[in-house]
Design goal:
Order of helices and strands: HEEEEEEEE
Bound molecules: zinc ion
Distance between the termini: 53 Å
Shape: globular
Strand order of the largest sheet: 4-5-6-8-7
Radius of gyration: 16 Å
CATH architecture of the largest domain: Beta Barrel
Structural class: mainly beta
Helix content: under 10%
Low-confidence stretches: none
C-alpha cells in the first residue's frame, strides 16, 4: 500500500545540522507551520519552503519526566521539556537546559540553541533568557 502523502522533513533535519531550527513556510500564502506537514492548513497548497527561526520565544508549558525508556535518557531523569511559542508564531517542543526549572513561568522568555540529545541526535534546547 502506498502512502497518499509523504511528509518531507528533510529541511528540518538539514537545519539542525546547520545549527538552525527550520520550519515550513507555505510558498503560496506564507503561513508558517510546525511540525512538518504535506500541505498548508490555511490554503491547502503543497508548495513549501524552509525558513530558519531566530531562536526567541516564550514558554507555553512544560513537563518533567521522572522515568524514560529511551536509551541515554533514563540516566538523565528528571529533565524538563518545554513547549515554546516562538516569536514567528509556531509552537516548538524542546528540552530546557537548566537543572532547576523553578524559575519557569508561563510566558517566560527563552532563547534556543541546537545541541545533541543523549542519543547524539541534534535537537532544540531552550534556556531562560532572564536567568544569568
Ligand atoms: Zn498556504
Amino acid at each position: 500500500m502506498q502512502a497518499i502523502f509523504s511528509i518531507d522533513a528533510q529541511g528540518y533535519w538539514d537545519g539542525l545540522q546547520a545549527g538552525q531550527l527550520r520550519v515550513q513556510r507555505c510558498a503560496a500564502c506564507g503561513r508558517l507551520r510546525h511540525y512538518p506537514r504535506p500541505l498548508c492548513p490555511a490554503c491547502h497548497s503543497f508548495e513549501v519552503e524552509w525558513v530558519a527561526l531566530a531562536g526567541h520565544g516564550t514558554v507555553h508549558s512544560w513537563t518533567r519526566p521522572h522515568q524514560s525508556a529511551l536509551p541515554g535518557f533514563a540516566e538523565q531523569v528528571p529533565f524538563t521539556l518545554v513547549t515554546v511559542d516562538m516569536a514567528e508564531g509556531v509552537r516548538v517542543l524542546g528540552r530546557l537546559d537548566d537543572a532547576d526549572p523553578s524559575a519557569l513561568r508561563p510566558g517566560a522568555a527563552v532563547t534556543m540553541t541546537i545541541a545533541p540529545a543523549p542519543s547524539g541526535q541534534l535537537q532544540p534546547v531552550f534556556r531562560l533568557t532572564d536567568r544569568r
